[in-house]
Amino acid sequence: MPAYVQPGPGAIALVFERDGEEPEARLVPRGDGERALLYAVTMLIQQRRLYVGDRLSVRAAIDADVPGFPAVPNQNRGESSPAP
Questions:
Q1: Strand ranges (DSSP E) for 1-84?
Q2: Is 44 helix (H, G, I), strand (E, B) or coil?
Q3: I want to staple 7 with a disulfide (CB 3.0 to 4.6 A). Which of 2, 12, 49, 61 is the partner?
Q4: Chain-centre distance for alpha carbon 52
Q5: Secondary structure letter of residue 61 according to DSSP
Q6: Does residue 71 lie in a domain region?
Q7: In 19-55, which positions are buried (b, 16+ CB within 10 angstroms) versus exposed (e)?
Q8: 52, part of any domain
Q9: Residue 42: which H helix or E strand, with range?
Q10: Do residues 11 and 26 lie in contact, with contact meaning Cβ atoms separated by under 8 Å?
Q11: Within 10 A of 8 (CB to CB), how many other CB atoms are there?
C-alpha cells in the first residue's frame, strides 16, 4: 500500500518528466535546499540516458501537477492542487 506524505508549507516537489512515461516526483521539506539538490542529482543519475524534451523541475509542492498524487489544500488560494 503506498503511503503519502502531506507537504508542509513551503515544501518543494522535484519532478522528472519524460514524454510517454509517468512523472517521477520527490517531496523535500521546506528549507532543505541541500537535500533537494541531492535528490535532483540522484533523479538524473538514475536515468540511463537523457533525451531532448526530458524535464526536471523544482516546484512548490502545492503547485506540483503529478498524476496519482493526492490533492492537498492550497492555503494561499483556498483550492486544492495535486502534490506528492
A1: 12-17, 24-28, 55-60, 71-74, 79-82
A2: helix
A3: 61
A4: 20
A5: G
A6: no
A7: eeeebbbbbbeeeeeeebeebbeebeeeeeeeeeeee
A8: yes
A9: helix 33-45
A10: no
A11: 12
- Which of 71, 58, 68 has its CA nearest to residue 10? 58
Question: Quick check: is 84 in a domain?
Answer: no
User: Would you call 16 helix, strand, or coil by DSSP?
Assistant: strand
Q: Residue 25 carries which side chain, given as an amino acid letter?
A: A
| Residue 3 banded pLDDT, cuts 50, 70, 90 | very low
Condensed to tens digits (0 to 9), the pLDDT of residues 9-61 reads: 678 889 999 999 998 988 888 888 899 999 999 999 999 999 999 999 998 87
What domain range includes position 35? Answer: 12-65
Residue count of the chain, please give it. 84
**pTM of this prediction?**
0.65
- Tally of domains in the chain: 1
Does some domain include residue 73?
Answer: no
Order across the sheet with 24-28: list the strands.
Answer: 24-28, 12-17, 55-60
